[in-house]
Amino acid sequence: MGGRPRGGWAVQQGVGTCTPPSSPTGTVTLTLVVELMCHHSPMHAVSYHRHRFPAEVIQHAVWLYFRFPLSFRDVEDLLAQRGIDVSYETVRRWSAKFGVAYARKLRRSHPPADTRWHPDEVFVSINGRNMYLWRAVDCEGEVLDVLVQSRRNKRAALKLMRKLLKAQGFAPTAVVGAALSDLGMESKHITGGRSNNRAENSHLPVRLRERRMQRFKSAGSAQRFLSTHAAIYNTFNVQRHLISRQTLRQFRGEALRTWQAGPLQLDGHVHCKVLRVPTGNVTTPSGLQISE
Predict the structure, then answer these.
(1) pTM above 0.90, yes or no
(2) Where are the domains of the chain?
(3) What CATH homologous superfamily does 114-211 map to?
(4) DSSP of the chain, one letter per residue?
(5) pLDDT at 276
(6) What's the whole-number average pLDDT of the chain?
């Protein structure tokens, strides 16, 4: 198994003591250099290994891009003002690689959503083609899920509801605005007046980012960006227009602590396997035992 490790594998060297079966001349004890190939568990496959910049810089760049309506070049200029020389292409790669992992970790630590859901759909132009962006928020403006679809029909609505039920783990007590007669949820349906203004207003941040990015380039990239953006948006959505300045400072501090504590700890348990066992004399590390 020669060659350079790929993916999340990292080669580490250790030493162990091997005692082969007894020979005619007696028992022989060998000191071996053991080369291990280590891989993190699939749940935490993203690693900062072999990155030139520390994790704090990468995390801050990703936070700037997803938290504010900035382009990659804007983030590059903001980092340069702090003395960090990094290209906009590097910021793009960081956002694509670490953004999804950050969002996944933030979703796990986020408190459960409200039981009153507001699903809605909106047109988005992707590569010159009109697509439908299905979104659902709760009564406090938390984004529950995002789904980019090519059609606006019963099948697309069912797919969104299945995603919502699987992700949230409970059924809603009320669903506002959407036409649910074909889904068998008429008893939970609420319509009339301005009942779905919550969902309509939740599209504004997406429209702002869409204009800043000069529209999405593909359905897949739109799905990845909007899912990551939703998780980070939920973390910092403190509804500042409804609370006092003192409460805002408290909520914003908690959101920043959640962001700073969570994404930096991406590495999980390490699984190792033996690649080769050449002979040699080095010091034996603790916990490594190989018997033959």
Answers:
(1) no
(2) 1-41+269-292, 114-211
(3) Ribonuclease H-like superfamily/Ribonuclease H (3.30.420.10)
(4) --S---TT-EEEEEEEEE-PPPBTTB---EEEEEEEEEEE-GGG----TT-SS-HHHHHHHHHHHHHTT--HHHHHHHHHHTT----HHHHHHHHHHHHHHHHHHHHHHSPPPPSEEEEEEEEEEETTEEEEEEEEEETT--EEEEEEES--SHHHHHHHHHHHHHHHSS--SEEESS--GGGT-GGGEE-STTTTHHHHHHTHHHHHHHHHTTSBS-HHHHHHHHHHHHHHHHHH---GGGS-HHHHHHHHHHHHHHHHHSTT-----EEEEEEE--B---PPPTT-----
(5) 40
(6) 77
